[in-house]
Specification:
186 residues; alpha+beta; four-stranded antiparallel sheet; 2 helices; 8 strands; elongated
Amino acid sequence: QNRARAERRIAGMQHLITVLGAVAALASPDTGVAAQQTGIATHAPVAVSTCAVTDLIGSASYAEFGPPFSSRALQLTFVNTNDTAATRVTFDVASGGAHATITDSGRFTKGAQIERVFGDLAGARGDGPATCTVTAVTFADGSSWTAQADRTFHPDYSRALTVEQMSKAWSDEWNRISPPVVTGGG
């Protein structure tokens, strides 16, 4: 019986150490954990001014028009801010919790406003605002630019427990994994 109690206590301590390690990893800003994000840059050579996903739904009022259809379209407006003309621009489009990659090719000179509508946008959902991030640009002179990923860990403390709540949780967990031994009673 003492051996079983000792094994339970060891298992409880191992569990407690594992939980403490996880908490420490989440709380430390230098964990090396990469954020689940695509390339983010503050100084991209292409600026996005419009980014919206629209669900286009057609209802068939008459039988001759066929069954109803649904399609998503991306309205995207951007400007090359670099002195060299861009020939290929790649965007990460986030909408409704999904991501899609869009690449536009052409000759985009500095300051020219480029307005595009991409139909049947696979992967993106929702209707309305989306987030379009420039991830890569190829220029006419053969040079290119690629966004660097933000690999900084950004913990969200908005739902963190207070010290009292954490202490109670640890106490409850300790009592759960190593309940007191009841003896006696004849």
